[in-house]
Amino acid sequence: MSAHGPFSSIDIANTGLGYNKYWLDTIAHNIANVNTTTAVGQEPFRARMVVAMPIDPNSSDGGGVYVGQVLDQQGEPEMAFDPDNPLADSRGYVQGAVVDLAGELGDLILASRTYQANMTVFKESRDALQTTTTLGRG
């Protein structure tokens, strides 16, 4: 990719689209596991959080973002009384997932909107480039 070439806005938007797809997939995985239970003492399901890192605009990649890290949500799992669950301990408790559902839904809105914004930049840049290439054709 070139930092100052005619495709730079498309290339940068494309990195955002890739990042947002990964983020949306991670959010979906977290929400799908919000009700996952484990036996007390085992590692619970922990929501994953995706960290975006900037690509240096002066690099050969020309800027944008990439998935820099994926972190596990910290905190203690909620204990739930569910004596009929085969994973329940002798007191009838299981531990829930470490997922902040409200936070995940907020992230879902944000990730969806940024995906839409990157797609708009991609489409507008593509259309502008196509218009530019047809100007001299008469």
Structural overview:
- With 138 residues, this protein is an alpha+beta fold.
- It has one domain.
- Helix content is 43%, strand content 17%.
- It has two helices and four strands.
- A two-stranded antiparallel ribbon has the order 1-2. It has a two-stranded antiparallel ribbon with strand order 3-4.
- The radius of gyration is 22 Å and the shape is elongated.
Q: Note the run of SSEs as H and E.
A: HEEEEH
> Biggest sheet: strands, sense, closure?
2 strands, antiparallel
* Protein structure class: alpha+beta
> How are the strands of the largest sheet arranged?
1-2
Overall mean pLDDT: 92
**Total number of distinct structural domains:** 1
Quick gist of this model?
The strands form two sheets. Strands 1-2 form a two-stranded antiparallel sheet. With 138 residues, the protein is α+β, with helices and mostly antiparallel strands.
Keywords:
single chain; 138 residues; alpha+beta; two-stranded antiparallel sheet; 2 helices; 43% helix; elongated
Topology:
Blueprint: H1 8-32, E1 48-55, E2 64-72, E3 79-81, E4 93-95, H2 101-134
Antiparallel strand pairs: 1-2, 3-4
